């Protein structure tokens, strides 16, 4: 089976993409009240966790992780902080000084934060990206995105994959696929970014950068494009895909993204990005606390049905 990974420049930045197909879902960002990271203080008690990124208002992590803490009976909080690029080091230092146990990291900071941390685990070391940081005498960075990405497709036989995206999430997906025996074709509107990623990851398996998407041969199409809040053109023409090809959208929204909803209406096998969100979040929570994450509660908190056994 082949997986086709579609990429664009950067982790959440770069060229806009559009859909070739019905526009069936409004992906406007989920708005929530957020305080500034500078407003965090040392006086607050309990287990303190957060997610940082830009943008971060649409993140479902606070809802999911807060539900997990309640289920575990752990007094604490999980917040979302939007951070400007020039503030990144100061933000992490401030949160560590205020007693935060750790943070999750989302776009576009997975690689910049990795450069500030001591890396733990082959996934973080090999990809150069982290999505989880634990504060202490040292800042330790881990990558739970790789295992989170693989979890919903762990029983699938390797094949051909088409990957669209070249940011931190795309790098985690590419590493996960290659080290699991998949053949990966990588496409990015900024060709140089795709070529650089393919060169860097070639030691892990069969990966090539494409000039144009070659979706016809893909068994799996992975979209690593951060869709919420953007006017995107999706470069795959679904009518050229084989009927058995599956769609995996790493972006997510309650009720599904417009890509996953369109794919479901078209009768495609679909992997919702919230599946990855739950597993990477559960692994992060376990790394921070040493407790077993309540995955069913986390799934329910973000609108996913119970997992089939």
Summed over residues and divided by their number, the pLDDT gives a mean of 86
The first-level CATH class name of the largest domain: Alpha Beta
Largest sheet entry: 7 strands, parallel
Shape, please? globular
**Tally of DSSP helical segments:** 10
Kindly identify the CATH topology of the largest domain: Rossmann fold
Radius of gyration over all CA atoms, rounded: 18 Å
Parts with pLDDT < 50 across at least 5 consecutive residues: 1-32
| Structural class computed from helices and strand pairing | alpha/beta
Provide the succession of SSEs: EEHEHEHEHEEHEHEHEEEHEHH
- Total number of β-strand segments? 13
* Approximate strand percentage: 15-25%
CA(first)-CA(last) distance: 24 Å
* Domain count: 2
Fourth CATH level, the homologous superfamily of the largest domain: NAD(P)-binding Rossmann-like Domain
- Architecture of the largest domain in CATH? 3-Layer(aba) Sandwich
Helix proportion: 25-40%
3D architecture notes:
This protein is of the alpha/beta class. It folds into two domains: 2-23 and 147-273, Rossmann fold (3-Layer(aba) Sandwich); 37-144, Leucine Dehydrogenase, chain A, domain 1 (Rossmann fold, 3-Layer(aba) Sandwich). It has helices at 61-72, 88-97, 110-114, 122-127, 145-150, 168-179, 191-201, 258-265, 273-289, 295-301; strands at 2-7, 47-53, 76-82, 102-105, 118-119, 132-134, 140-142, 160-164, 183-188, 207-210, 220-223, 246-249, 269-271. Strands 1, 8, 9, 10, 11, 12 and 13 form a seven-stranded parallel beta sheet that branches. Strands 3-2-4-6-7-5 form a six-stranded mixed beta sheet. Strand 9 (183-188), helix 7 (191-201) and strand 10 form a beta-alpha-beta unit. Helix 1 (61-72) crosses helix 10. 49% of the residues are buried.
């Amino acid at each position: 089976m082949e997986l086709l990974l579609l990429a664009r420049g950067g982790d959440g930045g770069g060229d806009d993409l559009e859909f070739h197909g019905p526009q069936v879902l409004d992906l406007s960002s989920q708005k929530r009240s957020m305080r500034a990271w500078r407003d965090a203080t040392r006086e607050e008690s309990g287990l303190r966790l957060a997610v940082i990124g830009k943008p971060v208002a649409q993140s479902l992590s606070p809802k999911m992780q807060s539900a997990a803490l309640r289920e575990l009976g752990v007094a604490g909080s999980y917040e979302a902080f939007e951070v400007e690029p020039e503030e990144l080091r100061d933000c992490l230092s401030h949160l560590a000084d205020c007693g935060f146990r750790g943070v999750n990291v989302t776009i576009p900071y997975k690689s910049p934060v990795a450069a500030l941390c001591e890396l733990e685990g082959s996934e973080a070391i090999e990809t150069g990206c982290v999505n989880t940081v634990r504060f202490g005498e040292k800042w330790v960075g881990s990558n739970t995105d790789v295992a989170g990405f693989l979890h919903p497709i762990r029983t699938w036989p390797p094949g051909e994959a088409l990957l669209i995206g070249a940011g931190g999430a795309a790098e985690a997906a590419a590493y996960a696929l290659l080290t699991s025996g998949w053949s990966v074709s990588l496409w990015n509107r900024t060709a140089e970014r795709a070529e650089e990623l393919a060169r860097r990851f070639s030691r892990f398996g069969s990966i090539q950068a494409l000039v144009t998407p070659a979706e016809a041969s893909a068994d799996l199409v992975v979209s690593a494009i951060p869709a919420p809040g953007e006017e995107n053109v999706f470069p795959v023409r679904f009518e050229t895909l084989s009927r058995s090809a599956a769609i995996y959208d790493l972006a997510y929204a309650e009720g599904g993204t417009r890509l996953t909803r369109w794919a479901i209406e078209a009768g495609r096998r679909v992997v919702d990005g919230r599946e990855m969100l739950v597993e990477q979040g559960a692994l992060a929570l376990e790394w921070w606390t040493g407790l077993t994450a309540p995955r069913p509660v986390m799934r329910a908190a973000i609108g996913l049905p119970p997992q089939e056994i």
